[in-house]
Amino acid sequence: MATIEQLSAALVKADAAGNADDARALASEIRKMKATSQVETPETAEPTSFVDRAAGALDTFTKFHQQLAKDTYGGMVRGAGSIGATVMYPIDKANDLIQGDRKDLSGSLTGVVLGDKYKAPLSRNQERRQAMDWSLRDMGANPDSLAYGAGKLGAEIAGTAGVGGVLAKPVQALAASRYGSGIEPVLNGLSTALKTGGFRTGEMAGTGVGNALTRAIGGVATGGVSAGMVDPSTAGTGALIGGVLPAATQVAGKVGSAANSVVRKVLPKASEEVATLANRAKELGIDIPADRLVSSKPLDAVASGLRYTPFSGRAAAEAKMEGQLDRALTRTFGQDSENVTQALRKAGDELGGKFDSVLKSNSVNIDKQFLTELSDVVNTASKELGADALRPIANQVDEIIAKGANGAIDGQAAYNIKRTLDRLGRGSGPEAFHALELKRTLMGALDRSLGPEAAAAFATTRKQYGNMLALEKLAANGAEGGISAARLGNMKNINNPELQELADIAAQFVKQRESAHGAAQRAAVGVATGFVGGLPGLVAGAGLGRGANTALNSNALRNVLLNQGSKAIEPADLNLLTRLSTQAAPLLPAQ
Which tens digits make up the pLDDT trace of 294-338? Predict the structure, then answer.
């Protein structure tokens, strides 16, 4: 059965040939098909079970990706066909000239039935391109879809990729010949401009008007030829875009550099120590907004206002930063989660099991260093403690000597001694310090007994266990408990570099700089503004807030405040950007 597109094509031909009877019959059939397609079909029954709904969802998902593949592939075929149609353009144009232009169908039955797109006469080359779209539609592709357009543009970019190099070859040959003698710099600059679509002219092309003219020639030539290869009717527009693009890019670059220079002069710079800490936070996966990098009242005011601006995204950005800090914290004790409380509980079981397993399964050798350190602990405790406080420490020392009489302490016995020392160390009496010193001596002897590799693994476990114990004191209870940045920033007596680093990051960047004072007033002002400005005011405020929040979280502004330049674009990257922009932009009118 013929489709509406096929009947439409037949109507165009019948109407143009003056065959009124056939045209009326075709028009009637087209109206019937359009009316039929607009009739509403009964709604399908709602799936009654989870299995039916899941099957329906899977079927929809599959059909979507199948259609996406058809549209993308169809667009790629159509893009290649654009260049093929251009190859046939001279023949089609010759036929138009020999047989005459097509009849204007604006007042005909075709124009009335099919609409505006058929009112202007089509050339044979335009019909050829239209026929490709119709054929691909018959095969299941949708020429109106984004995937189809993307596939078409991608194929056209690929098909015109070598235009600049081809145009540059004659210029290069001329520069190398005796006819190019004396003007080699100009020809070499033009050759480079053709290869890069006007983005470069080489070192020998000079500056000023000559350089700008060379760039423009390169952009016009590559843009016009590229667009003409896809659709000759767009060659002029493509040439215009190709000529303007390099100059516009240069102007934008200069404006950006000027703005960057102004910002660098106006805003304060972070100190070297703060910049180092900020870079470390970035390495740990913590995104710090620009306003937290320096002490700046204007930036603090903007950030504070954004917190009360609807839909600005500031609250989400701060919550994300705090979650990243929590995740970095949990990594210090072997977990990876934003829920610190639950991670601590999980780590307590895992690390405690590892700790106990190592102690119970390994003997502790009584070496000379162990005996010397034991003696030092006893002597110090004897000087500082009274008889009653000294007794538990002396008992544990006697236990160690008794259990190690044969030169080594059994793993289970060492484990029992360590547990007793843990209990004493958690006490509030004067013996607590000496109990912890005795435990440190025991753990050191265990490390030496394990060997280098096992000792290193056990040291990691001990460090993570120590971090866990330190953070347990700060964590809040609850299913979603955590550690506030303020409490972490105020943490004292930290003996671990990892925790100290995160505490510094929390204190310097993450905890709120603004006090609660004035928060209610600002919130009231925000609500009042919404009532006064109505929906347009809210929309405008949300848009401005969103833009300001994006700026505060941009790498560009962060780099300015840290006095770091943006990452330099490597030549290979610039070539890629050049190719994509110079090839894609002139082809857009053909879409």
Answer: 887 777 777 877 877 777 888 888 888 988 998 898 888 888 888
Predicted confidence at residue 527, as pLDDT, reads 44
For 141-180, the DSSP string reads --TTSHHHHHHHHHHHHHHTTTHHHHHHHHHHHHHHSGGG
Region of 202 please: left (phi>0), alpha (psi -120 to 50) or beta. left
pTM for this entry: 0.49
User: What gap in Å lies between CA 211 and CA 234, rounded to an integer?
Assistant: 27
Angle subtended by helix axes 431-450 and 368-384, to nearest 10: 180
Instruction: Check residues 297 and 42 and name the one with the higher pLDDT.
Output: 297
Which pLDDT score, from 0 to 100, does residue 260 have? 62
Residue type at 255 in one-letter notation: V
Same domain, 227 and 306: no
Q: Do 220 and 111 share a structural domain?
A: no
What is the distance between the alpha carbons of residues 204 and 181, in angstroms, rounded to a whole number? 14
Confidence band for 577, pLDDT divided at 50, 70 and 90: low
> What single letter denotes the amino acid at residue 248?
A
Could you give the percent of the chain with pLDDT greater than 90?
A: 3
Distance CA 323, CA 335 (A): 14
Distance CA 325, CA 244 (A): 47
Q: Is 510 helix (H, G, I), strand (E, B) or coil?
A: helix
Q: Are residues 30 and 144 in the same domain?
A: yes
Compute the mean pLDDT over every residue in the chain, rounded to the nearest whole number: 77
The structural domain count of the chain equals 4
In the block, tokens 């081809």 appear at 166
Residues 466 and 375 in one domain: yes
- Does 417 reside within a domain? yes
Residues 138 and 274 in one domain: no
Residues 128 and 244 in one domain: no
> Could you list the residue range(s) of the whole structural domain that residue 544 is in?
270-332+514-561
Structure tokens at 422: 């843990």
Confirm whether 114 is domain-assigned. yes
10-19, 50-59, 108-117, 578-587, range with the lowest pLDDT: 108-117
Q: 43-52, 271-280, 401-410 — which is least confidently predicted?
A: 43-52
- The whole-number pLDDT of residue 369 equals 92
pLDDT class for 517, splitting at 50, 70, 90? very low
Phi, psi (5° rounding) for residue 67?
A: -65, -40
**Where are the strands (E) in 236-318, listed by range?**
none
Answer yes or no: is 501 within a domain: no
Amino acid making up residue 326:
D
Beta-carbon contacts of residue 174 (< 8 Å; ≥ 6 apart)? 180, 187
Q: Is 493 exposed, middle or buried (0-12, 13-18, 19+ CB in 10 A)?
A: exposed
Task: Give the per-residue SS3 of 197-233.
Answer: CCCCCCCCCCCCHHHHHHHHHHHHHHHHHHHHHHCHH
Are residue 550 and residue 412 in the same domain, yes or no? no
Q: What is the per-residue pLDDT across 457-471, written as a single tens digit (0 to 9) for each?
A: 888 888 888 888 888
**Whether residue 256 sits in one domain with residue 387:** no
Q: Could you give the CA distance from residue 204 to residue 185 in angstroms, rounded to a whole number? A: 5
Task: Using the 3D structure, point to which of 481, 505, 524 is the last residue of a domain.
Answer: 481
568 found inside a domain: no
Among the candidates 459, 481, 503, a domain finishes at 481
Instruction: Check residue 507 and report its DSSP letter.
Output: I
